[in-house]
Amino acid sequence: MEYPELSLLVDGRWVGRGDRDVRPVIDPATGQPVGELPMATTADLDEACEAAGRAFRSWRETPAYDRYGVLRRAAELLRERADEIGRVTTIEQGKPVGEAIQEVYGAADILDWFAEEGRRVYGRIVPSRRPGVRQLVLRQPVGPVAAFTPWNFPITIPARKIGGALAAGCTMVIKPAEETPATGLALARALVDAGLPPGVLSVVFGDPATVSSHLIRHPQVRKATFTGSTAVGRQIAALAAEGVKRVTLELGGHAPVLVFDDADLDKAAKLAVGAKFRNAGQICIAPTRFLVQEGAFEEFTKRFAAAIDELRLGNGLDPETTLGPLAHDRRPPAMAALVDDAIGRGAELLTGGGPGEQGGYFWQPTLLAGLDPAARVMSEEPFGPLALAVPFTDLEEGLAAANALPYGLASYAFTADRATAYAVSEGIEAGMLAVNHFMLTAPETPFGGVKDSGYGSEGGAEGIEDYLFAKLVSEA
Predict the structure, then answer these.
(1) What single-letter DSSP state applies at residue 448?
(2) pLDDT score at 316
(3) How many domains does the chain divide into?
(4) What CATH number does the domain containing 183 carry?
(5) Which stretches of the chain score pLDDT less than 50?
């Protein structure tokens, strides 16, 4: 299939290259360019923000039922176009096409959820201490939002932000990742084709630091939402603080997996492969630190390594591929640096550990054991197909190891004992925990972290709350 022509979406208009700068979009499976992406000018950014401000005045007054109708129609269009969009995602991002297509269906489910949730934004009446006074608490949209999303889930993450904002009555200017622009534009096109009014959503691209600074500081913007690294999240929070603007941050992780002696090791190992190496490990909630109780360590790592070796590395468009390339040319050297550092400090390489032989940006699925706590990978999020196996003695030591890092996004545990599961659920320092499985995310559940993994939630009832504020109306 042909890769689509790329554009911006500004105030309801699809804006092409014109005299704008462009940057190439690269197929990570081949390392070859597939398209040219126009970069937004300062005038484009200003026009998008001003349009969001104008559109907000009417979109916030649009009945929730009508907003629901647009989102539901867009969800249906995504489902109709899932195969086409999924293939585009694979071309520009690399993940196996089956995963990419399922991601489109997942984004449709997210829009459906927020469409329904927007109809249930309720206020309340607070009993007054004084006769004749009625106290109302209204839930109202915060205003235009600036959103920034990464390349690893190029339709899921924008759908969470766009769905929550639009359902609440906010407008949005979003900058998806420049590595995966066509997927984000396909989501926007579904919304436009579903009847979204001009200006309610604009899509821009450009230098990340320049665009984020300009959008967040723009006087029309009242909130920022960002998914990405902790380092950049701090900068986004600082920019928002200048204008006392709300911000939601979904940042990095280094997810621990506590595997206890009484766990079903075969189940844990097989599920771990799917969770760890999905999307080539480029997932903020990917399990990475497998903390295994001493009695189960040898058997678990043996089964885990054997299951890893069954993965098939290749171009995501090949239906036989189960592990695609990394998303861009910076990732293989990053993997090599982490693996070399760990092995240099005495780590044992159980499987993988090198680049693929296919060309492009491939890296073998890798498992390390015997790690020095000082190894970089023990504290730096690898964001790739790299898993670590570390033994622990008892519950107290396991929890201490799981909580040792400043991250607190996702966490996992495998045990047959309910008391152990309860202790982990109470003691783990993370925004999310899955016990005896890895399926943490659903449209109806909150998604977010603590500590250096950010604050605020996306998904669930909590996902719309961050786009609303409470207004007290006291009437006598």
Answers:
(1) -
(2) 95
(3) 2
(4) 3.40.605.10
(5) none
Active site residues: 250, 284
Statement to judge: residues 96 and 114 lie in one domain: yes
Describe the chain by its helix, strand, coil percentages, rounded to 5.
Answer: 40, 20, 40
Alpha-carbon distance of 191 to 171, in angstroms, equals 13
The secondary structure of 343-388 as a DSSP string is HHTT-EEEE--SB-SSSSS-B--EEEES--TTSGGGTS---SSEEE
393's enclosing H/E stretch is none
Task: Give the 3-state DSSP-derived string for 96-151, with helices as H, strands as E and coil as C.
Answer: CHHHHHHHHHHHHHHHHHHHHHHCCCCCEEECCCCCCCEEEEEEEECCCEEEECCC
Pairing verdict, β 145-148 and 172-175: parallel
Range of the domain at 197: 8-251+453-475
DSSP structural state of residue 2: P
Phi-psi sector, 125: left (phi>0), alpha (psi -120 to 50), beta: beta
Residue 265 domain-assigned?
yes
pLDDT at 224: 98
Establish if 297 belongs to a structural domain: yes
In a domain, 2, yes or no: no
